[in-house]
Amino acid sequence: MKLKTFRYLGIITIGAIVASCAAGVDDTGLEYAPQMYHSTPYEPLTQIVEEDAGSWLDSNDEDGHGEFYNSNPYNQFKMNMREPVANTVRRGEPLPVRLTIDDLEVAATTFESPFKADDPSVVKEGKALYDSYCQHCHGEKGNADGKVAEAYAGVANLNGAAYLEITEGHIFHVITFGKGLMGAHGSQVSSDDRWRIARYVKELQKKN
Hints:
Blueprint: H1 2-20, H2 104-110, H3 120-133, H4 135-138, H5 147-151, H6 168-177, H7 191-207
């Protein structure tokens, strides 16, 4: 009987300890081996500037600040992750386009799509984008018979003789900066999506 009583008391005691470890809004509860949760090195994605933050743990006396403090005192703004240098391009991304509205010929002759020529997914995605951004003017097949073209004369017939030889770079530049009646779409369509549309337009011309 006494053994069962001790067992019950042990279970209740363990339950009470576990319950006391529950975190709250302002109280993190008890932590076992807090150094495992709050590492000494600077954390790049967190910024705790209060030097007494976590001082109640009394486990980091040698540093002269609380356990949770992790700002960088050697950085002007106490940041742990420095801001990249201006015009830095993230690894794996294409370089930004350095063109102006007057560089149509340069784009047409020197700019090439970052996508592989035999990638069917580019054409598929380009069609979806064309249907969203271009069809209402240029029409489903590029014949300048969209709803907008009915009201505004002069929409480019992409299957006309003057457009069959244009390059993807040419199309990319026109989408970016506009030309004639067409307005600039560079702020509305991402660089990659402009290349996808350009690829689809060339495929559309082949079909027609």
